[in-house]
Amino acid sequence: METKPAQNIQDSFLNTARKEKTTITIYLISGVKLTGRIRSFDKYSVVLETNNQEQLIFKHAISTVVMGRLLHSSHAEAKPAGTAQGAPTEITPSASGTEG
How are beta strands 33-41 and 23-28 bridged, if at all? Predict the structure, then answer.
């Protein structure tokens, strides 16, 4: 029945980073920090390119993978600005109504 398994979260994450050529940071279990771009990956390993060198990293040695995105930061900055503008408008009338 399952001829093609659904793509898992790990594969989606790594494939997105690879396609978009996003710079990622990989933290190994040993504490080593590696930064570069994903060239390829499979079930057991990831090939990371750093300074025109490729490193084969075994997934069992990886602790965390961090993907930095400019779009994510832009959205994060936009939300607090919208919230900050809406909040004083609601709070100010309540405060003046209570005091007056």
Answer: antiparallel
Q: Decide the pairing of beta strands 33-41 and 45-50.
A: antiparallel
Burial class (CB in 10 A: 0-12, 13-18, 19+), 67: middle
Count CB atoms within 10 A of the CB of residue 51. Answer: 6
pLDDT tens per residue, range 29-45:
999 999 999 999 999 99
Asked if 3 and 9 count as a contact pair (C-beta separation under 8 A), the reply is no
For the segment 44-94, what is each residue's pLDDT rounded down to a tens digit? 999 999 999 999 999 999 999 999 765 444 444 444 444 444 433 333 333
Tally the domains of the chain. 2
CA 43 to chain centre: 20
| Global confidence as pTM | 0.62
Q: Mark whether 60 and 97 lie in a shared domain.
A: no
Q: Which two tokens stand for residue 7?
A: 């793509």
